[in-house]
Amino acid sequence: MNDYEYDLITIGAGGGAYPAAFQLARTGQRVLMLDPKGVMSGNCLAEGCVPSKAIREGAELYRGVRRMPYFRTEAPPDYRSMVAFKDSVQQVRYQQHDQELASLGDRIRLIDGIATLLDPHTVAFETKSEVRTVTAKYILLASGSDISIPPITGIEHCVTSRDLFAVSPTVTELPAKLAVIGGGYIGLEVATMWHALGVDVTVFEVANQLLPGMDPGFAKLVAEGLAQGIGVELGAEVTEIDDRHRVKYSKLGKSLLFEADLVLLATGRHPVLPLGAEALGLLDERGRLVVGPGGTTKERSIFAAGDITGTQMLFHAATRESLAVAHNILAGRTVDRVDPQTIPATIFTFPEAAWVGSTRADLATRGIETVEVAAPFDHEARTQILNEPYGEVRLFGEARSGRLLGAWVVGKEAGQLIGELATAIALGATIADVASVADQHPLAHEAISRAARTLV
Ligand code: ADP
Fold first, then answer.
1. What pLDDT sits at residue 2?
2. Claim to verify: residue 193 and residue 250 sit in the same structural domain
3. Which of 81, 193, 216, 271 could connect to 59 by a Cys-Cys bridge, CB 3.0–4.6 Å?
């Protein structure tokens, strides 16, 4: 007999939590979601992917108009109005989520509480008015990630992506001169979108390449395509920021100073573990959550999905992992494992940059002999029509079988194109299979089959 109050409690109500919560509620199970935000969708909607793209697409439209020789538009968009529009997109999506939640009736509850794990079936949560303890047959850890704050003197003088993208953000005007600390995806997305809106931007990166940790060939292609006029300081370690937004940094043994009007901190994100995870022995010796295939943990009743796993911190990875957890709970065993090699990712910079699976360098470390083909974008009707020819599609396959194992796309509509390639990888396609697809003319997708056809 099951005398738990709930079948499932989710810690968090973002993309790692609610797909599983909804799936179980739809099958008649009793579900409780806990999140101090008191609303669904987590950080993606609160301050991440959705609001940043609401601004970014505005910048892209403005760029598009300026790129064309037949428009005469020099007046930059009104940034306050862009922010107001971004806010309205967030509000619409919150309303939509409220309706989705209401449609499931009393099978599912969302309480704005911060949760602590007490034992494999018990969670304590604290709201503004009370502290309560609840039990469940299963617990899903989906408390996401948070902005990493490095120990730099004067860090409080920086803004973060939260100050730019939260509903009613603190930053509603563009600075004349922006310093970005961190050359990862968040730093470069803001750098390129604000540069497109007329801001003078310089990026400071301590590593010797932008997008540290990514394939050097891919990072080089993105870096070379960055708009002329974005300053990039590599090997630059920021040591101090003062209250006048002056950035002190050291490079090649020299101590230097850069004067900005605003400083954006974009040095990464880290998983947020709920209290109690360590005491339950769910972490490894380095303090990271140990997550097995299908979101399993060291406790049979506890699962994990999303950014908390520290692997692919992407909303669509979180939702897919969350669904796998639901399937595995319903089946009573691990029937659904998410293959990270099939999950695409896009950096919404100008140029846009996307990838899926493995590159030649990754495959070499696994001892796989690789075949590599590419098609530059400047041959495509689509990129010529849009007057944005920079970029390429590059495919990586296993030489023996021809099986497609990875791809990157840099340039216009890269994020759209990578979806087709992710599907191909997930379905086990070979490069010859990809070559046989009649990618539509005159769309950028044609570069995919054109790259594949260089082989067959
Ligand atoms: P993911 O996409 O992995 O679900 P998100 O960051 O979108 O990640 O969502 C995680 C959510 O978890 C956030 O809304 C955050 O407020 C919430 N959260 C973080 N810590 C706790 C906690 N201890 N208890 C309940 N919710 C939490």
1. 65
2. yes
3. 193
Of 338, 353, 369, the one marking the end of a domain is 338
Weakly modelled stretches of the chain, pLDDT under 70: 1-2
Q: Where are the beta strands (DSSP E) in 35-103?
A: none
HSE of 111, CA atoms in CB hemisphere, 13 A:
22
Peptide bond between residue 169 and the one before it cis (omega within 30 degrees of 0): no
In-domain check, residue 1: no
Distance 54 CA to ligand 1 centre (A): 22
User: Which of 267, 288, 315 is the C-terminal boundary of a domain?
Assistant: 267
Range of the domain at 192: 155-267
What pLDDT does residue 72 have?
Answer: 83
Asked whether residue 383 is domain-assigned, the answer is: yes
Instruction: Find where tokens 């939702």 sit.
Output: 319
Cα(420)–Cα(2) distance, integer angstroms: 44
CATH of the domain at 443: 3.30.390.30
pLDDT at position 227: 76
User: Residues near ligand 1 with C-beta < 6 Å?
Assistant: 11-17, 34-37, 42-44, 114-115, 142-145, 272, 274, 306-308, 315, 318
Pick from 445, 319, 418, 448: nearest CA to 23 = 319
Report pLDDT for 377: 97
Instruction: Write the DSSP assignment of 195-238 as a string of letters.
Output: HHTT-EEEEEESSSSSSTTS-HHHHHHHHHHSPTT-EEEET-EE
CA separation for the pair 236, 250 (Å, rounded): 6
Q: Which of 43, 148, 278 to mutate to test the pocket of ligand 1 (most atoms within 8 A of CB)?
A: 43
Domain count, the chain: 3
